[in-house]
Design goal:
Blueprint: H1 7-10, E1 18-21, E2 28-31, H2 34-42, H3 52-63, E3 67-68, H4 70-85
Length: 86
């Protein structure tokens, strides 16, 4: 049986965010990195919560995109939660 890769190993600081075009809407779409999302999560004051849509909007604005990929953001948020638990 293969051992699972630790969540910490999935956080690759050398990754670069990508901008692409959403084929359905024609809008610019940001494909974020786990570290980019981690930076936004760290900005949340202790004891406060943020909706994931707010985090996506802030990342898109920072990179000059119209929106951020919801699927990739959700996957990376799960990785961050696993890394924090480790």
């Amino acid at each position: 049986m293969k051992s699972k890769k630790p969540y910490q190993a999935k956080l690759k600081p050398e990754q670069e965010p990508r901008l692409t075009v959403d084929k359905r809407t024609g809008e610019s779409l940001l494909i974020p990195t786990p570290m980019m999302l981690a930076e936004e999560v760290r900005k949340i004051p202790k004891g406060k919560v943020r909706k994931i849509g707010v985090l996506r909007k802030k990342m898109a604005q920072a990179e000059g995109a119209e929106k951020t990929c919801p699927l990739v953001t959700g996957i990376f948020l799960s990785i961050l939660a696993g890394a924090a638990e480790e």
